[in-house]
Amino acid sequence: MPEQNDTLEYRVAIREAIAAEMERDETVVFFGEDVAIAGGVFAVTPGLYERFGDRVIDTPISELAMSAGAFGAAVTGLRPVFEIMFADFLLLAMDSLVNQAAKYWYVSNEQASCPLVVRSAMGAGGNFGAMHSQSPVPWLQGVPGLKVVAPATAGDAKALLRQAIRDDNPVAFLEHKRLYSVKDPVSADDPEVLPLGKAAVVREGTDVTLVSISKGVRDCLRAADELAEKGVSAEVVDLRSLRPLDTETVLNSVAKTNRVTVVEEGPLVGGWGANLLGIVAAEGLHDLDDAWVVACPETPIPYSPTLEDAYMPAEGKIVREVENRLGLGAEIATGV
Amino acid sequence: MSQQSETKPLVGAEIDAAGARELYRRMRLIRTFEDTVQSQFQKGNVHGTTHLYSGQEASGVGVCSMLRDGDKVAATYRGHGHSIAHGVPPQALMDEMLGRATGACGGRAGSMNVVDQANGLIGCFGIVGGSIGAATGAALSEKLLGTGNVALAFFGDGTSNQAYFHESLNWAQVEKLPVVFVCENNLYMEFTPIENVTAGAIGSRPIAMGIHTQQVDGNDVFAVREAAGEAIDHARSGAGPAFLETMTYRFVGHSRSDPGKYRKPGELDEWKKRDPLILGRKALEERYGIDPERCDQIDAEVAKELEEIVERGLAAPFPDPEADGKEFK
User: Could you give the ipTM of this predicted complex?
Assistant: First the structure.
């Protein structure tokens, strides 16, 4: 099923990854709300049910039963992939994910692994309001035993999801809903899988390091283009996964640029960005001239387009903050 | 380690006198194990908290005696009895209670979270209802992999008010999964009478979903076996899940911190007259002509076995923190 054309749509990348792994390993099963016959509310999974039959299952609206079902299946021979429609709904699935799946391999003294993947659509920018727009990365990242992956491009999404399904322990795979329709260049030479926990330097620079995940990486790349026009050379690091966390790639970049900005779609307090800066400070303080997070207000995510646009850490905000911190002109600072 | 305690659970509906004695021995083993856990807790050798199964032995032993090799069991934080009933070696279980490296989970799990995959125990779950979700998922495996096995969840009456219960029963019935739900109704949700916090009869809930449902005297091991056999056969046949409510009573507090002051006057004494071990002795004599003295002999053997288990457990090494969990895969 791999497409021979040279671009790949993000949602198709997800679909192709699931299909390829179901083809490769018959213990892989896929379930979720509306995912089988209807093909998913974000049209990510059409055709899988027709192709794989009983291994693709429409579930009731029972997120806890789904995550616990995936857990029970994973520890008895299947490799379940399941979809929690909006990441906000993950809260309903959390008991089994956190108390059962994430702990099983360790608490059982490594008697058995728990190979499951929970896919979920996160992120604001679609005017879905406070309960359908969150990016619950820190809630998940704080759980040893649960890997957290959040790819920025279609190619990464495909290779990382294939690896997540092959991983022997639980992976939360977060897809920003504003990315489903983006298309990225791909090539036949792209790797089939990418390792979990390995960041990528996606743009090289010398003045400041911009670090993000998922859609935030694309915002950083656009900000870096704008900054280049103003004479600032920004390096962009795509973490790709939040646990395991590749601090080495970030520290290496900071050693070169001496400044680091983490771009997080979420509040500063309790966020993954502040946590990353804490680790960078502890291990690389001697390299740091400046370090901060471009985060969101400490509020629920608002609905109205004007409010939601202001809430988001978009490229304009990133550019302004970098200029301010680098002291590039008072006329720009007053625009904040 | 005693040879007897290494045996797998009894299999099948037809048993002879030796099988009947083994049922009794297994119930006595659980009771003595729990008494030992309690005394070792008081001595400071068992840590944290414990939730003992004393009084409910006929339920776990009766149900597990009808399972086959390959069937999976998910249990609760009151799981010592289920573990022993399903074949977890008591030495490994005791060592786990004592926090030793030789424990069933190397001391990482403790009383509430024991896993023994080799003996079909998916796990004991510290969160109320976790066993139901886990067994439902295991049944999905059994169905899709076509194994012919069933998965079985033990849980208490209080679980009937948990989301796991409603969501998983519904999904299991929709998907016709080979899972047996065993609700051990000991009349109290922790410290509170179950009727104070539960609308309607627990059994009416699976019935409303069209699930095959039975209620049985949970202190009569032979009655439990008969009902469990029917429930397990139903699930194994592909007809969908079965629900079995075993009516029983715990002789001890909910957990270590509970003196049981909420009990109705005289209630405990009434239930102790229906102790599963007393009923078991009577049934062994009536059904198989087994002399009560033979049961006394079993009691003495089990007491000695537990003494030896504790002795070996206390001599076993604690796990080494330097070697633990540096790499989390």
Answer: 0.94
